[in-house]
């Protein structure tokens, strides 16, 4: 009996030590200061720029505003010039001492037109001292209704549109701009916790899974090539103030500005893929503890409910 007690006591001590280490690691990661300022430096008297795709509203605009407050000049991107002009005015109203430009580009252009547009963007960017590239553009294909549907209900143009929105444009743009990025520089990719594999948004979920894996590969490639480029992927959960969600922000569901602050706070933290908001990180950690059968049951139930809500919004 005494041996059993010793074994149980040892297991308990090891478990306590393990959980304490996880807690300390969590606190260290979320309380440490950001190294964002590492990327704020001039080059031959040129001030640093941050290029944020998909930045006319939502998380992209939130990131642009926070980067502007950190002293970066801002290069916006979107497909609606009216919204981009409004975003430009919003940023300049808060940060009148910086420069703000924007690029109009539809990310869903077909093959050769896409490559031509990427070359045009490269020509516009090459004379700027861009130290930060934020790949934020993504989402469902423009005009896709309903958003939640089975794979067999997803039309060909919707499949192609989601690949273009979430993968093709981002990969071509990043490939074109890496040679222009100085050392050091930052590539920040916005993924999603939906990368775990969610029904009724299978294409979007799979595309975000690609962003996760691609970020890890690109980070290791930059290390292998001795490039001083930090590559980071942020996985949001629900965030308000976006084109899909207009509710008021709350403790567990931050607005896009609060989320942007948290995201930039993760720069230099030593992780390649992480959440941008501490409550999201806790929730992901709790989800990871669930047995697969419980997780499957919860995901199926939740996504069915979301699909039904989406149908009623049509």
From TrEMBL:
GO cellular component: endoplasmic reticulum
Family annotation (InterPro entries): NAD(P)-bd_dom_sf, SDR_fam, VLCFA-Steroid_DH
Matches recorded under PANTHER family: RH59310P
Name by which UniProt lists this protein: NAD(P)-binding protein
Family: Belongs to the short-chain dehydrogenases/reductases (SDR) family.
Top-level taxon in the UniProt lineage: Eukaryota
SUPFAM superfamilies linked to this entry: NAD(P)-binding Rossmann-fold domains
């Amino acid at each position: 009996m005494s041996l059993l007690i010793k074994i149980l006591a040892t297991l308990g001590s090891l478990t306590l030590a393990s959980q304490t280490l996880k807690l300390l690691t969590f606190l260290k990661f979320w309380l440490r200061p950001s190294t964002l300022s590492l990327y704020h430096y001039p080059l031959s008297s040129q001030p640093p720029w941050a290029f944020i795709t998909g930045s006319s509203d939502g998380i992209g605009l939130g990131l642009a505003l926070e980067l502007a407050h950190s002293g970066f000049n801002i290069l916006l991107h979107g497909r609606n010039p009216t919204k981009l002009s409004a975003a430009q005015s919003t940023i300049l109203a808060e940060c009148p001492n910086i420069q703000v430009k924007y690029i109009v580009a539809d990310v869903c252009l077909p093959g050769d037109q896409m490559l031509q547009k990427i070359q045009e963007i490269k020509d516009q960017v090459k004379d700027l001292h861009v130290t930060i590239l934020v790949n934020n553009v993504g989402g469902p294909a423009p005009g896709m209704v309903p958003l939640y549907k089975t794979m067999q209900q997803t039309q060909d143009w919707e499949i192609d549109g989601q690949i273009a929105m979430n993968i093709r444009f981002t990969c071509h743009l990043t490939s074109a701009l890496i040679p222009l990025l100085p050392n050091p520089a930052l590539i920040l990719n916005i993924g999603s916790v939906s990368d775990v594999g969610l029904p009724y948004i299978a294409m979007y979920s799979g595309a975000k899974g690609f962003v996760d894996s691609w970020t890890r590969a690109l980070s290791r490639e930059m290390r292998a090539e001795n490039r001083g480029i930090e590559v980071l992927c942020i996985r949001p959960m629900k965030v308000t103030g976006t084109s899909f969600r207009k509710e008021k922000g709350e403790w567990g569901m931050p607005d896009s500005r609060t989320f942007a602050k948290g995201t930039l706070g993760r720069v230099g933290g030593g992780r390649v893929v992480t959440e941008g908001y501490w409550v999201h990180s806790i929730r992901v950690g709790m989800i990871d503890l669930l047995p697969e059968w419980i997780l499957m049951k919860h995901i199926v139930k939740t996504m069915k409910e979301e699909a039904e809500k989406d149908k009623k919004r049509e």
